[in-house]
């Protein structure tokens, strides 16, 4: 696997969790 791919995947996961937590708080 490419390191750049793993780095991008980590960033996407962190942003996804951040957006998910923000949506959960709005409810």
Detailed description of the structure:
With 27 residues, this protein is mostly helical. The chain has one domain (1-27). The chain has one helix and no strands. The longest helix is centred in the middle third of the chain and has 24 residues, at 3-26. It is rod-shaped, with a radius of gyration of 12 Å.
Distance between the terminal alpha carbons, to the nearest Å?
Answer: 38 Å
User: Considering DSSP H and I runs of 4 or more, what fraction of the residues is helical?
Assistant: over 70%
Poorly predicted tracts of residues: none
DSSP strand count: 0
Number of domains: 1
Distinct helical segment count: 1
**How many strands, which pairing sense, and closed or not: the largest β-sheet?**
none
Strand content: under 5%
Classify the secondary structure makeup into a structural class: mainly alpha
* Bulk shape: rod-shaped
- Mean pLDDT score: 93
String of helices and strands: H
Instruction: Using the CA coordinates, give the radius of gyration.
Output: 12 Å
Please sum up the structure shown.
This protein is an all-alpha fold. It contains one helix and no strands. It is rod-shaped, with a radius of gyration of 12 Å.
């Amino acid at each position: 696997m490419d390191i750049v791919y793993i780095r991008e995947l980590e960033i996407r996961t962190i942003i996804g969790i951040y957006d998910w937590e923000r949506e959960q708080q709005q409810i």
